[in-house]
Each structure stands twice: as structure tokens, then as C-alpha cells.
Write a structure and sequence with these properties.
The protein is an alpha/beta fold. The chain has helices spanning 19-22, 35-40, 93-103, 166-180, 182-185, 209-213, 215-229, 252-263, 300-318; strands at residues 10-17, 25-26, 61-68, 74-81, 89-90, 108-113, 132-134, 137-139, 148-150, 192-200, 236-240, 278-281. β11, α8 and β12 form a beta-alpha-beta unit.
Length: 326
């Protein structure tokens, strides 16, 4: 089918976040918790293999992952048609891609551009984010450094090359670099359309009270900025909550983050403008244990379950009339 791609626009979905979007689910090994064990021994996710138990390669879904390395240059870590066994670890992309492939025979490019240990309140802060005061500190606007300083005092000179939103700028630049050479990443493709964004993040924001408190505001700005950045005002947005956070007993910063993530779901009453174009996957029931800061113990079932749910959520958004499109 890849030979026919020149006849149709490639549907692009951009995946962003931090380490759990990057992927730490173990693939290989005859041990409970790996994807291989889940598929071959437990009989889960049967669509990942054929009748002879060979791993299936998608004919239409392309899996691309890029990330800056220590040399501060973009490196390509995946560039192939989706196959669950091609890497040692997975994020949610396998579940996402398989659910979307099931729903459509269109050419699809999953473009993952992210790195671990990054907060929305600082590293991924989107353009346009203003300064704000919280307790006895002033926090940086997009483009500023340091991250904060004493409230009521002048902003100090930058203390590092990093700045608020630096990782956002890097991830976006890398994604655009891929799209500028589309046929290098999706053979024979000549045009594309940004159909949606997937976001799984929040762990690092747990450790700063201000980032957790303002997570909803930053998330709203992120959604709008991504649509503007890629000239895709109708692109859908799907995010997943942190797997360890139980809605029934969450507290502190964990609760602040969960409430913020659930608030932007289009079916909530808080942001009706997101009805039909933003969806939140509540991932606690899908998690097989562990927590985001421990990468859910590397259990591939967690990553696969969350990916399936995110892919299905995006498909459902695609089948609804969004307020953006009315």
C-alpha cells in the first residue's frame, strides 16, 4: 500500500510528552510484564502477530521517533512501518497505531518528538505563557531564564542556556524537520495533514507546587499553540492521565494534575469549546502497577493498554462533529 501513498495525503499525528510517552515498556523476554510474554503466552493483543506467531508489520502506519541527543542535534531512532518488535521498549504508539489502523486504511504517520524528565511548567512551556507569581516567587514567562526568582525583585540574568519552553521549541523544530522531508519518513508521500496530537506527560510537574497548580492553564495554552504552530485549527487532541493517580483518593499535586487533565476533556462542563475535539484518557484502571516516575515498572501491558485507549479516543473524536468545525 505504501506505493499508493502519493495518491492521498498522509494523516499525521504528533506524539509529545516525557519519558512514558517516549516509552519504557519492555518488549522482549519470556517474563511476565514484557510485550512478548503478554502476546505469546497470555494471548493478549492478538492483532500484533499472525497465525504463525510472527510479529505483524503494518502496511499503512509509519512509526517515526526523533529526539535531540547530547550533541543537541536531532537523531532518528525509529523510521519504519509499525511493528511492535522493532524496538527494545515501547510507549503508547503501538496501541495507538493499531487502533487507528483498525479504523482506517488511510496512510498514517505517527511522529513522536519528545524526551524524558521534562515539565510543562518549565521545559515544555508553550509560547505566549506569561510570568506569574506563586507564593513568594515570580515564575518565568516563555523564553525567560531562570525558572523563578524572589517575588518583587528584578529578574536575574540568565544562569544557563536553558529557558522556559526550550524543550517545546526543540520538539516542535524536530517534528517540523521530519515533515519538511516527508518522503524520507513515509515513502512516496508528497503531502500531509496534521490530524491530531497525543500527549502523555505530567510526572515532573508533580514536584513543583506552582507547576501543578497552573497545569490546567498551561495545558489549555499548549493545545491552542500546537494547533496554531502547525496551522491545524481542527486537529484533535488526546491526552492520558498519570497511571498511578486514582480519582477516588488523589490528593496534593497528584490531584491538581488529575483535575486539570480531566477538566479539558470535551465531555466535561468546564471547557465546552473542547467538545468533540479534546479527550482525556483516565489511565489508572489501565495501569498494571507502579508509577510514572518508575515507568510503571516497565510493564508493557500498561503502555499497550494506554495506547489502545488513546487511539480509540482519537478515532471517536474523528467520528464526531467538533465545535471547531461548526
Amino acid at each position: 500500500k505504501s506505493e499508493e501513498v502519493g495518491l492521498a495525503k498522509v494523516q499525521v499525528y504528533i506524539l509529545m510528552g516525557q519519558s512514558n510517552m517516549l516509552g519504557e515498556g519492555k518488549v522482549h523476554g519470556d517474563k511476565d510484564g514484557t510485550l512478548e510474554y503478554a502476546v505469546m503466552t497470555k494471548g493478549l493483543y492478538p492483532y500484533l502477530i499472525d497465525k504463525e506467531k510472527n510479529w505483524v508489520t503494518s502496511e499503512t502506519v509509519r512509526n517515526v521517533r526523533v529526539m535531540d541527543a547530547r550533541d543537541q542535534k536531532m537523531h532518528v531512532y525509529n523510521n519504519e512501518f509499525l511493528n511492535a518488535s522493532r524496538s527494545d521498549t515501547i510507549g503508547p504508539e503501538v496501541g495507538i497505531g493499531k487502533m487507528m489502523e483498525k479504523a482506517s486504511d488511510a496512510p498514517i504517520l505517527l511522529l513522536k518528538s519528545c524526551i524524558g524528565n521534562r515539565s510543562l511548567g518549565w521545559d515544555l512551556l508553550p509560547p505566549g505563557s506569561p510570568r506569574y507569581d506563586f507564593n513568594d516567587r515570580t515564575y518565568a514567562a516563555y523564553g525567560e531564564c531562570p525558572a523563578y526568582w524572589d517575588k518583587g525583585t528584578p529578574k536575574p540574568d540568565p544562569t544557563a542556556d536553558w529557558y522556559a519552553g526550550k524543550q517545546y521549541d526543540t520538539d516542535i523544530a524536530n517534528a517540523k524537520s521530519v515533515l519538511n522531508e516527508l518522503d524520507k519518513y513515509y515513502p512516496n508521500a508528497s503531502s500531509y495533514e496534521i490530524k491530531g496530537f497525543f500527549w502523555w506527560q505530567g510526572d515532573k510537574d508533580r514536584y513543583d507546587d506552582s507547576y501543578a497548580t497552573f497545569y490546567e492553564r498551561n495545558l489549555i495554552r499548549l493545545i491552542g499553540q500546537l494547533r496554531t504552530e502547525f496551522a491545524a485549527p481542527n486537529a484533535k487532541f488526546v491526552l492520558a492521565t498519570l497511571g498511578q493517580t486514582d480519582e477516588g483518593n488523589a490528593s496534593g499535586n497528584e490531584k491538581l494534575l488529575l483535575d486539570a487533565m480531566l477538566a479539558v476533556d470535551g465531555n466535561s462542563d468546564k471547557h465546552p469549546e473542547y467538545r468533540g475535539n479534546v479527550a482525556t484518557v483516565y489511565s489508572h484502571p489501565l495501569s498494571k502497577g507502579g508509577a510514572s516516575n518508575g515507568h510503571y515498572n516497565g510493564n508493557a501491558e500498561t503502555y499497550q493498554n494506554v495506547g489502545e485507549a488513546m487511539g480509540n479516543a482519537m478515532t471517536e473524536l474523528g467520528n464526531t462533529v467538533s465545535k471547531l468545525e461548526v
